[in-house]
Task: structure prediction
Amino acid sequence: MMRTCSDRLLKALVIIVVTALCGCMPPSRGPSTEANMDKALEASPAETTPTPVPQLPPEVASALLPPLSATGASEVPAEPRFDITADRTPARQFFTGLVAGTPYNMVVHPDVSGEITLSMKNATIFEVLDVVRSVFGYEYRVTGNTFQILPVGLQSRIYPVNYLNLSRRGISQTRVSSGQVSDAGSSNSADNGEENRDNTSQAVSGSRIDTESVADFWKELEYALRTLIGTEGGRRVVVQPQASVVIVRAMPEELREVEGYLSAMQGNLQRQVILEAKILEVELNDGYQSGINWAA
Result:
C-alpha cells in the first residue's frame, strides 16, 4: 500500500515538471511563415532590384553645382618647405640659389646689390621672400611661376580709387530773435503841394549764426598721402580725380603703407550712399506749349 502511494506521487511530480517545461518552450513556426521565407530566398535577382532613379533634364543638371570631390584638396601639391641659413651672402647669389631644385624661375634686376643675413626653418619660398622684402627692402613680383626681384629704391605704383569727382558744401542758418521794435514816421504836406516821404525806422534785436561745411575728398586725399610718405628724395603724389586714380612714387615699404591706407579708406567710403537721378523721358501736353499765337 505504501509503495502504491509513492508511485502515484512520483508520477504526479513527473507530469508537473513536463508541463512546466512545455510551457517555457517557444511556439513552433507555422508552415505559412517558413513558406514565405523560402519563397523570398528563392526569388530571382531581377525581382529584388530597386527601381532606378529617373535622370534629371539636361537644363536642370547644368544649373546644379558640380559634386564635391573628396580628392580635390590632395590634387594641389603642397608648397615645399626647407631650412635656409645665409650669413652676409650676396643678394644676387642668394636669390638665384633660393629656387634651386624647385619648379620656379628667378629673374634678378641688374641693379640688385647688397648682402643678406638670415636663418629660417621649415619655411616656403614665399615666406622667405616676404621676410626679405620686409627687412631688407627687396621688392618682388610673381608672374606665373617666375619671381622678379627689384632693387631697393623708389618705385611708382598706380592705385584706383572708387570715388566720384565732386566736392560737397553744406550751409545751415540759425537765427535767434529776442525782441522786435518798429517805429513808423509821419507824412507832412506843404502849401506848394509837395509831400515829404515817410520816414520809417525799424530795429530788430537778435542774433544769426551761419554754419558752412565744405568737403573736398580729392584734396584731403592728396594731403593725407603727402603727409604719409613725405616729399624728400624724389617722393611724389599725383591725384587725378577725372580718372579716379592716384599715382605714388616712394619706397617699397611706404607703398605698402599707402596701399593699406587706401584699402581701409575705401572700405569706409563704400558705407555711404550716393544717389544719382537721370531724366530718361519727358512727356509734354498742350499746357506746356510755347510760342506766338498768331490767331489772337
